[in-house]
């Protein structure tokens, strides 16, 4: 449970950074940002693995770059579920996926070993 909360906080920070850096990504309130982080965590846990398997041949052909499109689709799916979160098109979704991925990568590099100590 603690891992999900930490991941939701990191995702919320990534989505907040996406809204600040990527044109076309917007939130109406802090509550919608938190809700988007939680919903994106659930979408990534249940829908994304299926999408990764279904798009594996295309991912292999593009040397993994198609995973950006899959991640953008997961962010777009989250925006469809949530009225207070807007992603305006594929390029905004790809930009949000890149920013959110970089924030998660940095957080993992900084705090990734904390769970191993328990």
From TrEMBL:
Any Pfam family matching the protein: Phage_holin_4_2
Matches recorded under InterPro entries: Phage_holin_4_2
TM annotation in the entry: 29-47, 59-83, 89-114
Protein biosynthesis recorded as keyword: no
Keywords: Membrane, Transmembrane, Transmembrane helix
Name of the protein this chain belongs to: Phage holin family protein
Organism field: Brevundimonas guildfordensis
Keyword Membrane: yes
